[in-house]
């Protein structure tokens, strides 16, 4: 019985360890985003803590090779794991305000403090496998077999701990409560094991779950972030979703994860957003004039979000068929619930945009790409192969339009994307969005020039085209930039967009200079 329960304990500890790592990414991602830098720090430090646990656990087991010690160790690991979201809550709320102010000192300090919170529970859980091996070995001739079984059980538990938080618990009950579920589960396993050795020892540890319940009841109620104007929040399998409403006016904004970028905007009478979405309307008019409104037959959107671009196209061009790919079904539901994303001409497809576009049999007048997971464009949407797929789905006078990030003094990603888009499309046009970190690139199937946009604007003014279109065209004309020369081409084999974006972000925040792709 004792040996079988030891196996159960090892499985539970392995599951909890990976669940903590995956939940850590969401706990931090809600505030600091999900960049490679965040992931690298989480994974790197978790591995450091585990390595320390393996070393300490082996020595500890040799000095005190008793099941009572083993289960006490696990109980403390489970208890301190449950404390993480409770202790981190005030630190993260302060960090959220720092992110809004771009206060790098507080941001970095808060990030480090939260990562340190993981050191004790993960180190204690790292002690489990070597300690369990020590307890399980009764015959040294079977040491290899016993060690293999223990590590196999721990790894099997880790597999469950990888999928359970991301696919079920976090979307269902949220990140903080996911920590508590695994904490209470492992704590129960530890207390039962301790009770099998000595029920008095188990009773002495009952204060742990009681204290966790009390602290969680005090610290965890309320929103994840106290964002001004917050009317809705949800944690999905992919994102932390917020909707804020600006008063007066009732304009709603969709924010994801750290909340630095606005992914959709909506108000019942909103025609012009003065944001990046407006510039997608301009795409067809780089073609040789005249370009009538009726020339737009079908729109494809890779990165639908809550449907701002789809709504604008419907208002300007009428009920043209629109295929919109959005990978997160909870964002789609948010769009329908709070952004009136209910146009009958909009075909919502819950799928990765590249995968979905490749399987589409339609051809489009315009394909828009706006699939940011800040601060990155997903790398597979930046490659020559992807743009060839886009090209093949466009009509003979089709245009692709993509939103690309930059900083005020760093246009390296723009140059790289111009080179990649230009390797597929006949002409590339560049328009900066004022007062933002965004630049819009237009790739045209036919050779075109910027003068066509000016000529089409004049013609449409005379025809009384919708205000939203005319205003967007005017701002696009005013903010046209020279198309840079670039021989950089991202491919599916080589697309260091994350490295380049990291360098830009760090340089901007710290004011330094990082020379990547120069």
Topology:
Blueprint lengths: L1 H31 L3 H28 L3 H35 L2 H14 L1 H8 L1 H9 L6 H31 L1 H23 L1 H6 L2 H13 L10 E6 L4 E7 L4 E6 L5 E5 L9 H5 L18 E4 L5 H10 L4 E5 L2 H10 L7 E5 L2 H6 L5 E6 L14 H9 L1 E12 L6 H11 L4 E6 L5 E7 L5 H13 L4 H12 L1 E2 L15 H14 L8
Parallel strand pairs: 5-6, 5-8, 6-7, 8-9
Antiparallel strand pairs: 1-2, 2-3, 3-4, 9-11, 10-11, 10-12
Strand content: 5-15%
CATH architecture of the largest domain: 3-Layer(aba) Sandwich
Helix coverage percent = 55-70%
| Shape estimate | elongated
Whole-angstrom Rg = 27 Å
**CATH class group of the largest domain:** Alpha Beta
How far apart the termini lie comes to 64 Å
Number of domains: 2
Helical segment count: 19
> By CATH's scheme, which homologous superfamily of the largest domain applies?
Vaccinia Virus protein VP39
- Alpha-beta classification: alpha/beta
Largest sheet: 8 strands, mixed
Mean pLDDT over the full residue set:
91
**How many β-strand stretches?**
12
Here the CATH topology of the largest domain equals Rossmann fold
Low-pLDDT ranges: 512-518
Give the neighbour order of strands across the main sheet: 7-6-5-8-9-11-10-12
Overview of the structural elements:
The chain has 518 residues and is an alpha/beta fold. The chain folds into 2 domains: 2-219, Growth Hormone, Chain: A (Up-down Bundle), CATH 1.20.1250; 264-510, Vaccinia Virus protein VP39 (Rossmann fold, 3-Layer(aba) Sandwich), CATH 3.40.50. The protein is built from 19 helices and 12 strands. The strands form 2 sheets. The chain has an 8-stranded mixed β-sheet, sandwiched between helices. It has a 4-stranded antiparallel β-sheet with strand order 1-2-3-4, with helices on both faces. α6 packs antiparallel against α7.
């Amino acid at each position: 019985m004792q040996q079988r329960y030891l196996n159960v304990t090892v499985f539970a500890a392995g599951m909890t360890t990976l669940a903590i790592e995956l939940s850590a990414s969401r706990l931090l991602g809600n505030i600091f985003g999900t960049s490679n830098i965040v992931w690298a720090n989480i994974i790197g430090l978790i591995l450091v803590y585990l390595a320390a646990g393996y070393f300490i656990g082996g020595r500890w087991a040799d000095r005190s090779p008793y099941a009572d010690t083993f289960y006490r160790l696990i109980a403390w690991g489970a208890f301190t794991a449950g404390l993480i979201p409770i202790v981190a809550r005030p630190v993260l709320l302060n960090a959220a305000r720092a992110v809004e102010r771009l206060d790098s000192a507080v941001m970095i300090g808060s990030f480090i403090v939260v990562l340190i919170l993981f050191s004790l529970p993960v180190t204690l859980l790292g002690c489990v496998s070597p300690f369990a091996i020590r307890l399980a070995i009764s015959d040294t001739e079977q040491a290899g077999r016993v060690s293999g079984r223990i590590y196999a059980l721990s790894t099997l538990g880790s597999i469950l701990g990888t999928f359970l938080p991301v696919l079920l618990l976090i979307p269902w009950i949220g990140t903080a409560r996911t920590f508590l579920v695994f904490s209470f589960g492992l704590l129960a396993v530890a207390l039962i094991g301790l009770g099998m050795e000595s029920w008095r020892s188990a009773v002495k540890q009952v204060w742990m779950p009681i204290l966790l319940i009390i602290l969680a009841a005090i610290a965890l109620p309320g929103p994840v972030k106290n964002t001004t104007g917050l009317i809705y929040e949800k944690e999905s399998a992919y994102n932390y979703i917020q909707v804020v409403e600006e008063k007066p006016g009732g304009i709603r904004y969709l924010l994801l994860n750290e909340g630095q970028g606005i992914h959709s905007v909506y108000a019942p009478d909103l025609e012009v957003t003065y944001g990046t979405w407006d510039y997608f309307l301009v795409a067809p008019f780089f073609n040789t004039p005249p370009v009538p409104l009726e020339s737009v037959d079908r729109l494809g959107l890779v990165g639908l979000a809550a449907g701002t671009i789809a709504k604008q196209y419907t208002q300007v061009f009428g009920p043209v068929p629109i295929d919109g790919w959005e990978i997160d079904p909870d964002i789609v539901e948010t769009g329908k619930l709070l952004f009136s994303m209910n146009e009958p001409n909009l075909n919502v497809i819950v799928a990765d945009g590249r995968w979905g576009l490749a399987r589409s049999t339609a051809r489009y007048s315009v394909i828009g790409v706006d699939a940011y997971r800040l601060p990155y464009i997903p790398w597979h949407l930046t490659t020559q192969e992807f743009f060839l797929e886009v090209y093949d789905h466009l009509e003979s006078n089709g245009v692709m339009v993509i939103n690309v990030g930059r900083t005020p003094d760093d246009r390296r990603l723009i140059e790289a994307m111009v080179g990649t888009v230009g390797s597929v499309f006949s002409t590339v046009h560049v328009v900066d969005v004022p007062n933002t970190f965004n630049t819009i690139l237009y790739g045209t199937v036919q050779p075109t020039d910027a003068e066509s946009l000016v000529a089409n604007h004049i013609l449409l003014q005379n025809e009384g085209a919708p205000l939203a279109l005319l205003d967007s065209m005017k701002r696009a004309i005013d903010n046209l930039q020279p198309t840079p020369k670039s021989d950089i081409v991202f491919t599916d084999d080589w697309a260091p967009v994350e490295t380049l974006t990291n360098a830009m972000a760090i340089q901007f925040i710290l004011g330094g200079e990082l020379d990547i792709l120069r």
